[in-house]
């Protein structure tokens, strides 16, 4: 298992499959993953709640200072990024000052890198909170996770309890009124002796039903790219991903496939 953690607040720029040249912002600790999901495919590895510290976050001032420093350096090098992306070692919307940090980032972007877009990659667990939703909507792209329209599959893939349901996520995502981007990881394989495959006919029909309810601005679908914490997971072929994308396009969605 070769998972990794980002060791800085600002990382990259990295060449992202989905976003191009992207400067990353990691609001989470640099020495462990801090997330309320435990996705079996997470590139940061499994979640270990016993490692969680009481104050795990970088302060708003630290994030602002570091981001300004890196953007000014990139500006002087004539090398500004296409995207400034909130990602990193866990779930960015868990930061208690997420809204304020987004506002700071918009201000810095407008001043130093006006061509760059701001993206937030989030698991959508906080998206039902009005302040978080408002902050997410200040980003050019709020990219929110929904890996399956079926509770069992979603709970297994994301390592969450039965109390976390697809219905609750859909209700939160509907509040974005068509402005959210939905990201879905497709994979198959055995985990804890249970076979998971979110590309079956039933899965795709249910997933499309969820997308119809959410009505996202765009859908991003992808598959495993690097080693996963859970052994035994398999990539989905480009052909299969494109078939899924075509079905979603047939419904009328704008779909981006990353393989
Ligand atoms: S939501 Fe993202 S950071 Fe959290 S466990 Fe899943 S993939 Fe990892």
End-to-end Cα distance, whole Å, is 20 Å
Main β sheet profile:
8 strands, mixed
Strand proportion: 15-25%
Q: What ligands does this structure carry? A: iron/sulfur cluster
Order of helices and strands: EEHEHEHEHHEEEHEEHE
Short description, anyone?
With 259 residues, this protein is of the alpha/beta class.
Layout of secondary structure:
Layout: E1 10-16, E2 20-26, H1 60-76, E3 83-87, H2 98-112, E4 117-122, H3 130-136, E5 141-145, H4 151-158, H5 166-174, E6 181-186, E7 188-191, E8 194-197, H6 201-214, E9 218-223, E10 233-234, H7 238-251, E11 255-258
Parallel strand pairs: 2-3, 3-4, 4-5, 5-6, 6-9, 9-11
Antiparallel strand pairs: 1-2, 7-8, 7-10
Helix pairs in contact: 1-2, 2-3
